[in-house]
Design goal:
The complex is a heterodimer of chains A (about 350) and B (about 270). By secondary structure, chain A is an all-alpha fold. In chain A, about 75% of the residues lie in helices and about 0% in strands. Chain B is an alpha/beta fold. In chain B, the strands form three sheets. Chain B has a six-stranded mixed beta sheet, with helices on both faces. The chains are: A mainly alpha (about 350), B alpha/beta (about 270). Chains A and B meet through helix 1, helix 9 and helix 10 of A and helix 2, strand 6, helix 3, helix 4 and helix 6 of B.
Chain lengths: ~350, ~270
């Protein structure tokens, strides 16, 4: 053994590193372009078609007859809400799945988004709160749901499967609270109720986007800045700590940030079914074991919401809320994972 | 090339919740040497190692690294001096060997730090030292147990610490890979002066590879010092409750434990008498 090192070995290491980095950028870049395309298409298509020039005119603030209202006030808030909510669900979901080392430990399976949703529907229907107040109430409630699940599951360190089962139970409780409130709210029509049951973009408005946009602007950089810590936490708490990660502090930061993103997205669009659950595994499947899956999962989430909403609007006889489409996509995957996890322990991301 | 670091457990009491596992224990790790800790299951040896690696805070007493209380130092600062290979580290699905080894560089990078040529060199050096260069691009989960353990050691080497703690680095390895790993750690100690502290199960290997042998039982240190002085028939009885003969290892002259059981031994003793 010597302390010198051969140039070939150094090159080998550098080549591997560059290859992984290139793959991450190619995948992330492609997803970004796909999201941009889906966003643009959902602005152009609808009952009336508007050309890219007309859409661009609206985006740059010109008065375009017809398009200024349809695109500017209807399609743009709708697509923007879908884009931001999808980003939040995708990133929040993959953080949970990675930290708990289980694809089933998604915030929409273990009751975190249900907690946010129950608080939001309570805040709007019973308390009549403003959009921003509802967002904060949803965040507080989602954090409380996370804490509740953790405390109920915590026994000798709180194992993964136990936490997931308790989370599913907690989710069921919150879901029944949502159903009860929605059923008692006489003035609510069906589409509005759907927003709280499966998630919908029908109520999208600029007023509702503002808190979500601010949450994304503040929390997303925090989450992306913690991407390397999350990668190190995957090696196990002891190894991560030995490599210089303050484990407890970073885990709390990651969870609180992820819960914040999920709660604000839920307050704006409802708990869009299974987007948080599906995005991480899809992103990891495309990306492979290179680099952080946080941003790719967020982009997959945005793509899922935009495409599912577009399909729900145009491909069926009646207009379906986005959550119905994502629910149909997600449910078989959930069943598949449950079957696989009952056979073995293998449901890691 | 290395500064001699001092690592000193000073009257540490350790436990989980109300359960006390180690009480008032003192251990001075000799710098630049290999220290091996042996003891029966649940004697507190892994717990002691965890507290020396800053993973478990003592309820009283302290672990001093170069005279400073390790639990009050920032995690990253400790990680530049002291590395740890835990008993069951987790490799993310599909991760490539060189990617995993690269993570050992984390303590040397700042919050916004870019990867530098120096980091590439350290990773390459760790791969060459552990003989894993040829599998650098392979996924860790496809490797054999022996190769995988070399890769984890490579990650700890890429960290380039003066002190390295290992919790049962030879568990689940067959005998040839056990020797292989212990030889590798001895190389590291002799060539770089790295202080090594490890928990081992096999008494004979512990005696052969240790400069300083520590025998623990019931959360206390029963004996510590040169393997020749520590590994006696009395110590083995006190630590493991096992009768044995200690004979010189024919290859090294170090003490070698030959255990006695209820079967076979009496017959042979009678026949040879």
């Amino acid at each position: 053994m010597s302390t010198t090192v051969s140039a070939e070995a150094v090159q080998l290491v550098a080549r591997g590193r560059r290859r992984r980095a290139r793959r991450w950028w190619i995948v992330t870049g492609s997803l970004l372009m796909a999201v941009a395309a889906a966003y643009t298409l959902s602005l152009m298509f609808g009952d009336t078609f508007y050309s890219p020039t007309e859409v661009w005119g609206v985006l740059t603030g010109q008065q375009v007859p017809g398009a200024s209202f349809t695109v500017g006030e209807l399609r743009l808030p709708r697509a923007t809400t879908g884009l931001l909510a999808g980003l939040c669900f995708g990133m929040g979901g993959v953080v949970f799945q990675t930290l708990l080392r289980n694809a089933l430990a998604s915030p929409d399976v273990i009751g975190i988004t249900s907690g946010a949703s129950a608080a939001a529907v309570f805040g709007i229907v019973v308390l009549g709160l403003s959009e921003t107040a509802v967002s904060f109430l949803a965040t507080a409630s989602a954090l409380a749901a996370a804490l509740l699940i953790y405390l109920l599951a915590y026994k000798d360190g709180g194992s993964g499967p136990r936490l997931i089962l308790i989370g599913i139970g907690v989710a069921a409780i919150f879901d029944s609270v949502i159903s009860y409130i929605v059923s008692r709210a006489a003035e609510w029509d069906l589409p509005a109720a759907m927003r709280w049951l499966t998630g919908s973009l029908n109520d999208a408005s600029w007023e509702r986007i503002l808190p979500l946009a601010i949450a994304v602007a503040v929390l997303m950089p925090v989450l992306l800045g913690s991407a390397r810590d999350l990668e190190l936490l995957r090696l196990g708490d002891h190894t991560a700590s030995a490599l210089g990660v303050p484990v407890e502090r970073r885990r709390v930061l990651l969870i609180v940030t992820a819960v914040g993103l999920l709660a604000f997205a839920t307050a704006a669009a409802g708990p869009i079914a299974f987007v948080a659950f599906l995005s991480g595994p899809i992103a990891v499947r495309i990306l492979g074991p290179v680099g952080s899956p946080i941003l790719p999962a967020g982009l997959v989430g945005a793509l899922l919401v935009l495409v599912a909403d577009f399909a729900g609007q145009h491909f069926f006889g009646s207009r379906l809320p986005v959550g119905v489409i994502t629910g149909v996509l997600g449910a078989p995957y959930l069943v598949y994972l449950l079957i696989r996890s009952s056979r073995s322990q293998g449901t890691t991301l | 090339m290395t500064a001699n670091r001092s690592l000193h457990a000073q009257g540490v009491t350790l436990g989980y919740g109300d359960r006390v596992i180690v009480e008032g224990l003192d251990l001075m790790v000799p710098p630049g040497r290999i220290t091996t800790i042996v003891g029966a299951n649940a004697c507190g040896k892994s717990t002691l190692l965890k507290s020396m690696a800053r993973l478990l805070a003592p309820t009283s007493g302290s672990v001093l690294l170069d005279g400073k209380a390790i639990h009050r130092m920032p995690t990253k600062q400790v990680a530049r001096v002291l590395g740890l290979l835990p008993q069951s580290p987790i490799a993310p699905d599909g991760i490539a060997v060189s990617d995993l080894v690269s993570r050992g560089r984390h303590p040397h990078q700042g919050a916004l730090a870019r990867w530098t040529g120096e980091d590439d060199k350290a990773v390459a050096r760790a791969l060459e030292t552990t003989g894993t260069t040829h599998i650098a691009d392979r996924p860790v989960d496809e490797l054999s147990g022996g190769q995988r353990q070399r890769v984890w050691i490579a990650m700890a080497l890429a960290q380039e610490t003066d002190v390295l703690l290992l919790d049962e680095p030879t568990t689940f390895l067959d005998i040839s890979h056990q020797i292989d790993v212990l030889d590798l750690l001895t190389d590291l100690n002799r060539d770089r002066g790295t202080t090594i502290v490890m928990v081992l199960h096999d008494l004979n290997l512990a005696a052969r590879y240790a400069d300083h042998l520590v025998a623990m039982a019931g959360g206390r240190i029963l004996a510590g010092g040169e393997p020749d002085d520590v590994l006696t028939e009395d110590t083995v009885r006190d630590v493991f409750g096992l009768e044995c003969r200690v004979v010189p290892d024919p290859l090294t002259g170090r003490p070698m434990v030959v255990p006695m059981g209820r079967h076979h031994t009496a017959d042979y003793a009678m026949r040879s008498a």
